[in-house]
Hints:
- The chain is of the alpha+beta class.
- The chain is built from three helices and three strands.
- Strands 2-1-3 form a three-stranded antiparallel beta sheet.
- The radius of gyration is 24 Å and the shape is elongated.
- The relative contact order is 0.15.
- The model has no long low-confidence stretch (mean pLDDT 93).
- Keywords: Plasmid.
Amino acid sequence: MWRYSLRWRYPHIPCSGEPVLVSEDVCEGAPVPDSILSRFIAGGDYAVCLDFLAEQPVRRWPPERKAQARLRNLRRRILKSAPLFADELIARELALRPEYFKGR
Length: 104
């Protein structure tokens, strides 16, 4: 499903009225509905926006996978900047933040 809407288009300026004037859910690939186009003014303060509605929930990494990625990134980062002292610096970082590198 897609959602077309007519939204305030200036994020740096507070909206004087409603942030979303009208919105409508349509099937994938459908053109902008007439209910939105009829209220759209070219050069106005509102823009036609398209949102893709996610039907799948966000998948989170398990703690083990997070721990592997964090440790791999730490090693890569330290080996890039200080390869001579890498073992000592990695051990220090693991001692400072053990919970973080366990994936919590």
